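Final report, results section. Input specification for complex C-07:
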Amino acid sequence: MKAGLTTSLVLHTVVLGFGLFTLSSPRPMEVADVESFPVDIVPMAEFAQSVQGEREAPAAERPAPTPTTRTDVVDDAERVGDNTVDTTAPPTPDPRPRPVETAEAPPPAPTPPTPAPEPEPEPEPQAEPERPEPVPTTEVAPEPRPQQEVAPDPVPETEVAEAPQEQESVSLPTSAPAPQSRPQPPQAQTARTPERREPERQTEQRQQATASDRESENLEDQVAALLNRDRASGGGAQRSNEQAALGGRETTGAQLTQSERDAIIAQLRSCWNVPVGAESSSDLQTTVRFRLDPSGTLEGSPVIEKASGNRQFDESTTRAIRICSQRGFQLPSDKYNTWSEVVVNFDPRDMF
Amino acid sequence: MALAAPGGDHSIWALFMQAGWVVKLVMIGLLAASVWTWAIIVDKLLSYARMRASLSRFEEVFWSGQSLEDLYRSLSERKTTGMGSIFVAAMREWKKSFEKGVKSPLSLQTRIDKAMDLALTREMERLEARLGFLASVGSAAPFIGLFGTVIGIMTSFQAIAGSGATNLAVVAPGIAEALLATALGLLAAIPATIAYNKLASDAGKIGLRMEGFADEFSAILSRQIDEKVVTRAAA
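Structure output:
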């Protein structure tokens, strides 16, 4: 027996030792690095929800937003709107028809700037008694500059004319002041033009600017667009001329996938206290529509679209939504457009 | 029990080390059973070969025409096995009866047969000793291994339920480790079953051979008794 036992022990040691070294770690299975992507069969309406379009418009084959009125093309703009800058702010709704021209119309005649002429006459009277002839010529030389800026209109001419009248005893400075003091009317009227030109110049700069620059400016643009109640404000700068059709406010790139839909259902399932006896009932079904805000909490109150006929059951579904809303629905925030409004069919057989 | 990190070391030793204590116990038990099984197999193979050789030698000597008295004298002094012990048992009974004078030849024959039966049974007992262990290992080891596997998978699933992950990479190491117990069970059971079948049939053959010798020797002795009775009656 001793021989047998030693033989067996030696044999096992050899086999196990051999096994530990040769059968150590199997080569990892080579799996091609292919990402599996779920394929959803999407109805027309759901597809439209995820592409830029109009929320209230009827469904068409191609979703399209409201046609824009401006025709100038802004390069690589992504959101539709009449804006000159691509912002994420929603387009300003047009409260009432207002003539567009009002915004660009020339302002009522500018009030003539009065303070300008006042400083002018002061130096001249001082000069008169002290100096003879040459004085007016030297003093008039600086005059034209302020006159150009402030448009003193005919006033200086009259004053200049008066001055020599007073100084008749000395001499007549007729030649020097007359041509220089003449105001230039076009320059005087351009009080508003710098404001109008500015945005155009900015957009030109922005088109050339890098993406990061644009992002940093985007916030300011958004604020400006939200504050501006003019018609051509908010929205993006992409132009559209197609008939408006059903779609979301912006293109999110994908609609809510089946798994995200399941995520909503799973969250509701944990909040739902099914009334006793309803779990196995085959004919209790309630369809509820509710709106969510971007943080995932309920907006307004859930609306029962199709009641089950059992009041207790219906109330349990809306209660489930409210309970879940207190915790907040966990959903991808970048797809808010697609889950801002959710329709859930509460059916105990499907959900449990 | 913590889940094994996916993509880690999956060698057999690592699998064994990360198993739970129940599974470890099962594996160690199965390994011990395997060691003992092989010890028995080796021992039996050697002893059966020795037994067959001794049987052949004894038969050669027995049928060589040597006087039975001489053979008995030479055999009774040392330890005998197999046919030798049967022969010695029968001769001892024969001698005892004849030295005291036989009253009934019939009862003498019965006694000699009984003595040979007893010796044969003892020899068979020795031959078949520990074969039962092989039979038990052959039938029970797979179940023991399966038990370890079930326990291992159970704990591994409990751990998965605790962690909440459902990835196959998380599930796989626990199951692989649990399946190691079944593998060890089969490793012990398969040789045990095969060896049991072979050794049992070998033991049966040797037993038949010894039974045949016992019958033959019984016939020889019976003839001798009759002869002695006749001579005694004649005298």
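Chain B touches chain A at residues 7, 9-14, 31, 34-44, 46 (CB under 8 Å). Residues 1-7 of chain B have pLDDT under 50 and may be disordered. This concludes the modelling results for the funded period.
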